[in-house]
Amino acid sequence: MEVYLAQPRGFCAGVVRAIEIVERALEKYGPPVYVRHEIVHNKYVVESLKNKGAIFVEDLSEVPPLSVTVFSAHGVARSVEEEAAVRGLPVLNATCPLVTKVHNQGKRYMSKGRVLVLIGHAGHPEVEGTMGQVPGPVTLVQNVDDVAALTLPADTPVAYITQTTLSVDDTKDIISALQARFTDIQGPDIRDICYATQNRQSAVRDLSKLVDVILVVGATNSSNSNRLREIGTEVGVASYLIADGSELNPEWLKDAKAVGITAGASAPEVLVDDVIEALRRIGPVKVSVLPGREENIEFRLPAELTAG
Ligand code: SF4
């Protein structure tokens, strides 16, 4: 069976940085280090860090006094930062710099008196963080229907920002609907969309032209992994989201001559290897990596982890 690997796939620079922050904190301060929310949405990553001494909590009230605390890559609301400050917790912030950029854009728009619209998924930690970072009300829209349902007057000065794990392709219809609905609307430059999200989605579209089945390696609570699976399905290729090789169902491959594999931004390459191994147990495979966009973005670590 032919196996094609999408390129790029898997870890983005924000995820690499977030994991490294926890690892370096464990080395520098010793375990335990507390992490608020899954550092990135992947069980394998979370379990490996747990084994090294990280303790994951959903609420800061679970963190003992003075314990080193890491905020996850998704970002947090100001109320969480304030709670940490009041409790005197030493915090390392692993929020992806691209998420922070969205927070700052939102704050700028609001300071200019615009009504802020956030395009994103309700309940996602990044959306909760962004809504809680800007000093004022935010209107969340998840789709074109939500735009139609807005009751604001057409001449309201509006600005929009987007969840980073949505791509240009995901948001363009919603943005067009907003632009059609409001006469005075501003949004960020297209270049501000997360490069990793866009690249992984373009790569899965390229992959879909060659294969009969797409396997997306990622977690069910990973927004960008779900989106990769949806794109495969939208373009007519049977697509499945699996955590690792153990979830591979041989039935899916019955009539397949070529299988494509990609991985969400929070899924490590070791899990892609695990899926390839699972395919090998079904029959002989020939693995090729597709050509794709080179990524060489790196984000700096917090200064306290790099100094001496
Ligand atoms: S997907 Fe984009 S925004 Fe999210 S962590 Fe990765 S680089 Fe940052």
Please, could you describe this protein's structure?
With 308 residues, the chain is of the alpha/beta class. The chain is 40% helix and 18% strand. It has helices spanning 13-29, 43-52, 78-86, 97-111, 125-133, 144-148, 168-181, 195-208, 223-234, 269-282, 303-306, and strands spanning 2-5, 33-36, 54-57, 69-71, 91-93, 115-119, 138-141, 158-162, 185-186, 213-217, 238-242, 258-263, 286-289. The strands form three sheets. The protein has a five-stranded parallel beta sheet with strand order 11-10-12-1-13. α3 links the parallel β4 and β5 (91-93). The longest helix is centred in the first third of the chain and has 17 residues, at 13-29. It starts with a strand and ends with a helix. The model has no long low-confidence stretch (mean pLDDT 96). Bound molecules: iron/sulfur cluster. Residues 12-15, 73, 96, 98-99, 164-165, 194, 196-197, 224, 265 line the site of iron/sulfur cluster (SF4).
